[in-house]
Amino acid sequence: WVWSQFQRLLSAGESAFVMTLVGVIIGINAALISIVTKWLSDIKMGYCADGWWLNQQFCCWEVDSDEEFCSSWHPWSTVTAARWLLYVIFAGVFAFVAAHLVRTMAKYAAGSGISEIKCILAGFVMQGFLSFSTLVIKSITLPLVIASGLSVGKEGPSVHVACCIGTVVANWFQKFSRSQGKMREVITAASAAGVAVAFGSPIGGVLFSIEEMNHIFRIKTMWRSFVCALVATFTLSVMNPFRTGKLVLFQVTYSRSWHFFEIIFWVILGIFGGLYGAFVVKLNMQAAAFRRKHLANHGVAEAVVLAVLTAMVGYFNRFLRIDMTEMMSILFRECEGGGDYNNLCQQSVQWSMVNSLLLATIIRMGFLVISYGSKVPAGIFVPSMAIGASFGRMVGIIVKAIYLTNQQSGIFSSCDPDLPCITPGTYALLGAAAALSGVMRITVTVVVIMFELTGALTYILPTMIVILVTKAVGDFIGTRGIAEETIRFN
Amino acid sequence: WVWSQFQRLLSAGESAFVMTLVGVIIGINAALISIVTKWLSDIKMGYCADGWWLNQQFCCWEVDSDEEFCSSWHPWSTVTAARWLLYVIFAGVFAFVAAHLVRTMAKYAAGSGISEIKCILAGFVMQGFLSFSTLVIKSITLPLVIASGLSVGKEGPSVHVACCIGTVVANWFQKFSRSQGKMREVITAASAAGVAVAFGSPIGGVLFSIEEMNHIFRIKTMWRSFVCALVATFTLSVMNPFRTGKLVLFQVTYSRSWHFFEIIFWVILGIFGGLYGAFVVKLNMQAAAFRRKHLANHGVAEAVVLAVLTAMVGYFNRFLRIDMTEMMSILFRECEGGGDYNNLCQQSVQWSMVNSLLLATIIRMGFLVISYGSKVPAGIFVPSMAIGASFGRMVGIIVKAIYLTNQQSGIFSSCDPDLPCITPGTYALLGAAAALSGVMRITVTVVVIMFELTGALTYILPTMIVILVTKAVGDFIGTRGIAEETIRFN
After folding, report:
1. Which end of chain A is more exposed for a tag (fewer CB within 10 A), N or C?
2. What is the ipTM of this complex?
3. In this structure, which topology does domain B260-489 adopt according to CATH?
4. Separation CA B261–CA B268 (nearest Å)
5. pLDDT tens for each residue of B444-469
6. Which residues make Cβ contacts (< 8 Å) with residue B107, sequence separation at least 6?
7. From CA A282, how far away is CA A478, in angstroms rounded?
8. Per-domain residue ranges of chain A
9. Of the candidates B57, B72, B63, B67, which has an alpha carbon nearest to the alpha carbon of residue B243?
10. Is the Cβ–Cβ distance between B154 and B198 less than 8 Å?
């Protein structure tokens, strides 16, 4: 009896050990990818005199405020036009290197990888898709692609990389390498950890592995995902790649709660999310068909052209110029207390702001449709959220303008006249949730991720309402999520 | 084709309509239960001269501060001893009425009901368990039991009531009343809504219905749970029973984050949670065996004796005297900014505070073991959390005392000497999570519920670590959750 107990413990211990090991490696890998991405993004603008390996943040570590001049950081040139040219050239070079590496060394590293992983979990066998070479190449090319400024995100590829790590590590252990079922469990857990480290959202990762990855789910698998996501997030937090001690990407605190009449505008955002999802999925499939027909052998050139175009056009819009996550953290903020980037909150320029945001929404959508699916690692999570956020903020500013001109009107009667009634930042948050839910067709996961990303506790109910509408619109139109559509296309 | 589309839409519409209707009724019912509970709890202490139907809060609505004297609210007597006696008598009367109603009108209304619902979802048929009479009697007796001060919670019964509502409503529709499978889906969704309204935690409800209620789960059911929980929470929020506009039970904001060395103490809390769970489940099963043997026909007398005893003993501990949710919201708070209830934060009385908290932990545990399972509606969620919170706060105060006497020691080197390093409130939060997870053996749900209850975003990782340890300890000891043990016992 003692022996059988010991064996049982050993077997349980082995599983726990493998999950922990996978989690630790995923965490370390994610931290390294973050550091390299930041450095590559900054090198487009200039270099650090104290050491070429420092990014702008670390180079200027001792300079306190953003206002002060940082003497160690040198822009490449003092002429604006030259700076812009170098920016575009760097974008092209990064895209070229990434596409070339993918083309020559690991074809499977292209795209987001989530649809293929869904196939593998459903029982298909794809030799080499979760191999060590895919892992290495995708980890190297992902920072290059993000830094090149292409309208793609790092979350999908991050899940793929995590699943590669899971497979590679589990293959070292006989218990896992012999059993397809156990291997699938490891892959599911690793996908949870991948989302967890990409968003800093461990519970969101667990739910993602439930909602998106499997159609039928066992409680035991959930527990494995929990452990793996926890370990990976904790490792990332110990590594602390940004030295801020924070995992939360864009923490916001809303000092005011919502009003019931705002439900009308949430419905609008929800409808936008549903339409956005259907539209992007449809156009992206057409782009994929076009790509297969005409660009099959020009993957590298395609990526370079896209990167150069994105860099050239994006430079002229104040919201496309900056990084997507940075843009979102600006758009989510309340106006009070330092949220006034580039006069975003000034009433005098509200219509020009609406204009900028609408342009940003449309242009980014266009680039996303043609970029997602090109032959480089490319995710669709963050770009979708960015598009939703710019649209939502636009709606928020319009609603605020309507309120300010009709303060006495009936529907605004629940507003306290002494306080700001409408918070445009919350509309950006809800818009981001709607777009993400619309394109991936996931629901509970989106609520948890948005909530872990921002900590906006009072906005859980509004987020759920928006996602309810998005899901209803999506079901009515009848499109599937982009991952499923990609599976059917292939 | 048009006709088949129309039929499809109608069928989808019918399901959505039923889910919405169930959600609305659950929300309304929960709001009514809350209002009655508050009124009954207050009537033990005194009455309102402006109208007997007002509770203390509404009676004193116009009095701003807690310090000011509220002239409309009259305590029953000016003599302390008489007040205490009336308090105990009221407790006894409430318990008697509740137990008598349950005994004569609906036997199934006793207990928490969660274990039976798990059986029903697994395919057993229990005639009358989810009937209209159970619904009515449980809704009436639940406020009485809570107001009587018994060491039991309203969350388990609230799930049972929600499932009754789901069954009763769904039986009006042929589509559901004919199909066992569809009925189970409605019950699952209703259980999600029950947790959602009890805690004000919609996503926690959805996860509860995944993790606790089913062993294998379909994504479509999750979506139904989502809708039902959303509608119920929204209805509750519109009803706004406490006129505070808040659903969050104990919102806390921690101004400081955690340190890595605190992981040692989290492990202690996790071990406590695991041991607590095993201990309570084991003793409660013994109490149930004793009850079945000796008290089978004395259910009413038993409940009255328990209520009177609880009221008599509880009066002499400063943490047992007040309401459980009130106690938790006090224990979770940071000391800075008004968290100093009854000198809780004063260093001079820290050891007497530790003493009080330890006593509160042990006494409440004793009462919980003998009260849970008596013949009145009784849940185990909130008492477990309260026990965990008092134990956690005790650990927190001890850790703080250790820190203050050994500030120079190695493990505290990461503390900033100018700031308070240890926040005892966070230990209370983690202790509550550990105890809840230990007794119910649920994991992800607990993280989400704690998080939706308090909004403590930075403490997700610590909560996950604590629950990991709790789960490991529980698995090592080998006990099941209390719901499963109750099933086996019956």
Report:
1. N
2. 0.82
3. Clc chloride channel (1.10.3080)
4. 13
5. 888 888 888 877 777 888 888 898 88
6. none
7. 11
8. 13-239, 260-489
9. B57
10. yes
**Are the CB atoms for B413 and B363 separated by under 8 Å?**
no
Query: Looking at this protein, which amino acid is placed at residue B165?
Result: I
Q: What is the mean pLDDT of residues A55-72?
A: 61
Q: Chain A residue closest to B463 (CA)?
A: A230
Place of tokens 């789910």: A217
- Residues B31 and A198: their CA atoms lie apart, in Å, by 40
In degrees rounded to 5, what are phi and psi of residue B365? -60, -45
- For domain A13-239, give the CATH number: 1.10.3080.10
Does an H or E element contain B74, and which? Answer: strand B73-75
**DSSP per residue over A50-68, as a string?**
T-TT--HHHHTTT--SSSS
CB A403 within 8 A of CB A394: no
Q: What is the CATH number assigned to the segment(s) B14-58+73-239?
A: 1.10.3080.10
- Using alpha carbons, select from B344, B349, B310, B348 the residue that is nearest to residue B327: B344
The neighbour count for residue A238, using CB atoms within 10 Å, is 12
Which residue type, as a one-letter code, is found at position A325? T
Among B221, B457, B459, B466, which would you mutate to test the A interface (most chain A Cβ atoms within 10 Å of its Cβ)?
Answer: B457
Q: What is the pLDDT of residues A147-203, one digit of tens each?
A: 887 878 888 888 999 999 999 988 888 887 778 888 888 888 999 999 888 888 888
Q: Which residue of A has its CA nearest to B252?
A: A457
- List the beta bridge partners of residue B73: B48
Using the 8-state DSSP alphabet, how is residue B232 labeled? H
Q: What would the pLDDT profile of A300-313 be if each residue is shown by its tens digit?
A: 888 888 888 888 88
- Residue type, position A401, single letter: A
Contacts of A363 (CB under 8 A, 6+ apart): A313, A314, A317, A320
Model confidence pLDDT, tens digit, residues A143-153: 888 888 787 88
A461, A469, A476, A477: best to mutate for the B interface, most B CBs within 10 A = A461
The answer to whether the Cβ–Cβ distance between A460 and B203 falls below 8 Å is: yes
What is the structure's pLDDT at B263?
A: 87
Question: Is the CB of A447 less than 8 angstroms away from the CB of B203?
Answer: yes
Of A230, A115, A113, A130, the residue nearest A180 (C-alpha): A130
Cα A19 to Cα A226: distance, rounded to the nearest angstrom: 10
